[in-house]
Write a structure and sequence with these properties.
The protein has about 575 residues and is an all-alpha fold. The chain has 32 helices and no strands. It is elongated, with a radius of gyration of 42 Å.
Length: about 575
């Protein structure tokens, strides 16, 4: 709580002086001396937040010294602190009337009225203070701010004029006047204030930039451009000026002039890369907002490419270029930028994560494995790095290494869906390694984390069918997986194979044939269809599909014996 201690000191000193005079003149009464002591005690109690005791002392002092403004002022302060605004205004008014030349009494009364929501009384308290202190700019400023708070903006501006008449032109006060005129939609008056602000400090870049933005608010784009070009003449390298110019050119769809701004900026070796980055991010953001603007799209690509090439040792330039190239689907070019980012700022974990994902997306599994240790060092315990590394080992037929990485990934922080994908892939590896009980637990965890993980449903169902376990649950899982992706070849084959294991050969044929008809089926599906025809007693068709499986995968040598047996 803000105290009024300073304002109480003056009357306190007066009271200390009074007894000395009284003793010399023998005119002070015993009651007045006691009242003075109560007053002093009350002030001390107030300063210690002992409000009730302070009120007792000050009320007694006021009974004996009712004509003394200081006592009334002290009572007003205590009542204000206790939120008793009725009594605070009563005693504050007594103090101000008793000593009208004391501006602090009027200011205290205005404060009380303001907190009580008495707007007119607040204004009047300031005006009364100004009758005695007409040149006091502190009082004038508080009066102006009160007018603003009460929405009386014309009156506020008139008071601001009085202040500047005494203090001289002031940028901040002209700015307040501008905002008031702008709020009142007094366009011409607002423009006058901007011109006044411009003349106060014409060489200050910050001033010119601020004024340009206000011109933009008033739809005076040409005036804003004039101001900014003036700022650019003073400092052609100032990033804020270039950014404001760029914003105007974007609004005007003036892509050629926008390009000129960025070319001059990128070619300037004296502009710091971090400052260039802000401007480059700006044009990239505009491109993301308006990707169909061909000229903007071309310029964005040129700017990002030039930035990354001109600043090869600045990691953020490489990362931003990589982000843009990834968005455009240019994976090879993006990969080059990510490799450069890894080189110049290896501690940047995001670059390693992105590089790992891009390599995996490009099916460059050996390259993922090659950078895995570095990526895992700089992107410590990152689920993405560990998962894509594990999946790369899995897809290159190294299940033991895959298991290690995927188990690590399963403990790394990630969102529920990704954790489900990790658990599902881990279960696939565990199944391949004949660790079936562990695999079942991993599949169950995957589906608890994401009940819509249809890949986990399909693989769980297929592994159950291979083992001939819990075929009812396997069928339920397979049906749910197909409901998510009805034309997925692998899912159709799985549900067909579950039916086959259940002895439901006609249903098995229906689903596996649908899998073949998608055009995405492989040798395993062809072999399954041959097995179904065998079960249905149609050996001619069985041989046809076994041969097709063998043609597509020569490693299925065992099919030769089955084919020969069927033809004998």
């Amino acid at each position: 709580m803000i105290r009024s201690f300073i304002y109480l000191v003056t009357p306190l000193i007066l009271f200390f002086a009074a007894p000395a005079v009284a003793q010399e003149t023998a005119m002070q009464t015993k009651d007045e001396a006691e009242a003075m002591r109560s007053y002093i005690d009350g002030v001390m109690l107030f300063e210690n937040d002992e409000y009730e005791d302070a009120l007792d002392k000050l009320t007694y002092a006021h009974l004996k010294l009712s004509d003394h403004a200081g006592v009334s002022f002290a009572l007003a302060d205590v009542y204000l602190a206790t939120r008793d605004l009725t009594n605070a205004s009563y005693y504050g008014k007594i103090a101000a009337e008793a000593d009208p030349e004391n501006k602090w009494y009027h200011l205290k009364l205005a404060q009380i009225y303001r907190q009580a929501g008495r707007n007119d009384a607040t204004i009047q308290a300031y005006k009364t203070a100004l009758e005695y202190h007409p040149d006091d700019t502190d009082i004038l400023f508080q009066l102006a701010e009160s007018y603003v708070n009460y929405g009386e903006l014309i009156e506020a501006n008139a008071v601001y004029d009085r202040i500047m008449k005494r203090r001289g032109a002031d940028f901040a006060i002209h700015l307040r006047k501008f905002r008031n005129f702008n709020a009142l939609q007094m366009r011409d008056s607002a423009l006058v204030e901007l011109q006044e602000m411009r003349e106060i400090d014409p060489g200050n870049l910050s001033t010119l930039q601020t004024i340009s933005q206000f011109y933009i608010e008033l739809d005076e784009t040409e005036l804003a451009l004039e101001i900014l070009n003036e700022a650019k003449e003073r400092n052609a390298r100032d990033p804020q000026t270039l950014l404001l110019l760029a914003e105007i050119y974007v609004d005007q769809s003036d892509w050629d002039r926008l390009g000129e701004v960025f070319v001059s900026m990128l070619q300037d070796p004296l502009i710091y890369p971090s400052q260039k980055l802000e401007l480059v991010r700006f044009i990239y953001t505009q491109y993301q907002r308006m990707p169909s603007e061909e000229v903007l799209a071309r310029q964005t690509g040129d700017v990002l490419t030039a930035f990354s090439e001109n600043e090869p040792e600045y990691g953020p330039a490489q990362l931003l270029a990589a982000e843009y190239l990834l968005q455009k689907g240019e994976l090879e070019a993006a990969l080059e930028k990510l490799m450069q980012a890894n080189r110049v700022m290896p501690e940047q974990s995001d670059a390693w994560i992105q590089r790992t994902q891009v390599l995996f997306q490009m099916e460059r599994y050996d390259d993922v494995i090659a950078i895995s240790d570095s990526a895992n060092t700089y992107a410590s315990d990152d689920a993405f790095v560990q998962f894509f590394t594990g999946a790369s080992y899995m897809l290159t037929d190294r299940p033991e290494e895959a298991l290690d990485w995927l188990e690590s990934a399963s403990y790394a922080p990630a969102n529920r869906k990704f954790r489900s994908a990790i658990q599902s892939t881990l279960a696939d590896i565990q199944s391949d390694l004949d660790r079936w009980e562990e695999a079942k637990r991993s599949y169950d965890r995957a589906l608890r984390l994401d009940p819509e993980n249809h890949n986990a449903m399909n693989n769980y169902a297929y592994n159950l069918s291979k083992l001939g376990e819990d075929l009812d649950y396997a069928l339920e899982l397979a049906e749910r997986a197909v409901s998510f992706m009805p034309e997925n070849s692998a899912y159709l084959d799985t549900i067909g194979w579950v039916h086959y294991k259940r002895g439901e050969y006609s249903d098995a044929r229906t689903f596996i044939q649908r899998s073949v008809d998608t055009g995405d089926a492989g040798p395993e599906v062809f072999e399954h269809l041959g097995d179904v025809f065998e079960a249905l007693g149609n050996m001619d068709d069985a041989v046809i599909w076994w041969n097709k499986a063998l043609e597509n995968d020569s490693n299925r040598e065992y099919l030769k014996e089955r084919i020969e047996s069927a033809q004998s």
